[in-house]
Amino acid sequence: MHFATTTSLLLTALTTLTTAIALPNPQSAHGDGAENEQGPVSFLWPHDRAWKDEDDNTGPCGSRQLANENRTDFPLMNGAVALTILDDAADVFLRISYKENPIAQSDFVSLSADIESLDAGHQCYNHFTIPRDVEAGDVATLQLEYRAEDDGKIVSHYACADITFVPNSQFTKSIPCFNVTSEEFVEKKDEESAAVGVRVQGVLMGAVMAARL
Ligand SMILES: *[C@@H]1O[C@H](CO)[C@@H](O)[C@H](O)[C@H]1NC(C)=O
Ligand SMILES: *[C@@H]1O[C@H](CO)[C@@H](O)[C@H](O)[C@H]1NC(C)=O
């Protein structure tokens, strides 16, 4: 499949990069067979709940797993949500619930402006504010809803990521926050290969560095 090839390319480059600069928490989803372990769009950071093909069209979380103790620490300020897009998607909604264990769609409120369409690649959203009354130690669940192809039909998909807010002073991770499409990778590959490597590495390195500031 077309996107599988471009995706492998992207994931390989990312894996190499994250390994090279030793991010504190390299994503295991970037290993071989990642295409079979997640939906068309998934959380790169914070990590989402275990993915199951038979559940990912069921809202609000695309998983039967209840919010558990496996939450990712999330900074109260300057947080970001990074997505991996394996296949083009449309009508993407990023929402949040401040409930301990949200089970209904009505438990979630909008976190970011609605996204009309997403091209395969990586996207990171960092323009949102957490309400003032949310404190360190509070928990929340991020929800991703989007429409993408499943067996030839365009259907809704869901994914959730469970988080715990921490003060920024205690947040030591660097969020892999950058935007790049698979197409950009392919275009660059068609150019001279030496230039490509430098360019791609430069773009990613810049983004990762920026995310660390
Ligand atoms: C918690 O999440 C991480 C990242 O997805 C995963 O590797 C680990 O197995 C999970 N642990 C449990 C107890 O579910
Ligand atoms: C990625 O693109 C989205 C949509 O254009 C934008 O809102 C976001 O700020 C971008 N993220 C970065 C890290 O530039």
TrEMBL record:
It is a lipid-anchor; GPI-anchor. Its main location: membrane. This is Copper acquisition factor BIM1-like domain-containing protein. Keywords: Cell membrane, Glycoprotein, GPI-anchor, Lipoprotein, Membrane, Signal. GO terms for cellular component: plasma membrane; side of membrane. It holds the Pfam family BIM1-like_dom. It is found in: Cell membrane. PANTHER family: ANCHORED PROTEIN, PUTATIVE (AFU_ORTHOLOGUE AFUA_6G02800)-RELATED, HYPHAL ANASTAMOSIS-7 PROTEIN. CDD domains: LPMO_auxiliary-like. Residues 1-22 form the signal peptide. Residues 38-181 form the Copper acquisition factor BIM1-like domain.
